[in-house]
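Sequence in, structure out.
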Amino acid sequence: MFKDMSNPGDVENYLDIIEKNAMRLGRLSTDLTEMQMIEIGLLDITKKPVNIDGCIDEVQGEIKPILDNKSQTLKYVRHLEQTQVPCDKLRLSQVIINLLSNTSKFSDDDSPICLDVRDTKDGVVFTVRDEGVGLAPDDIGEAVHTFPGYCEGFCYRVHGARVELHDGRIWAESDWVGKGTMFFFTVPSSG
């Protein structure tokens, strides 16, 4: 199963793989626990004023190694008059990181990914846009809940529930297979 472990480069590579898999399993375990808590009504969120730019800075730092691995770039576009939104910062970050991570996974190397955040009459809308494989029109309605390959839909159900706990909503749009996808979610500006 393992090659000759006398080469330090091979050992370092295997340790890196082990670390990434352990982190992924930890996130999955957290998601499973949270989904169970959401389903039985025990997960509460704590809404506090969160500085959006500060939150996005932290997200960018966390997602950078994933994007760097594929030489992808993240463009953060901000169209906000307000600087804070009442939300649970951990849950908000989890949703953004998951959307960016999956967008990276289904996008080509060296491709741009855009995170757009803007004020609307319905609150703050977060949009993650890629130039990846895209979705067929028939798959759009199911994208957020059951799109195969995106954690078999489980991750999006968890994040959809996290968004709904904020009285927001999550959805996807695509111009067609091969044209990329846009994932959106809203968080109310007050509340």
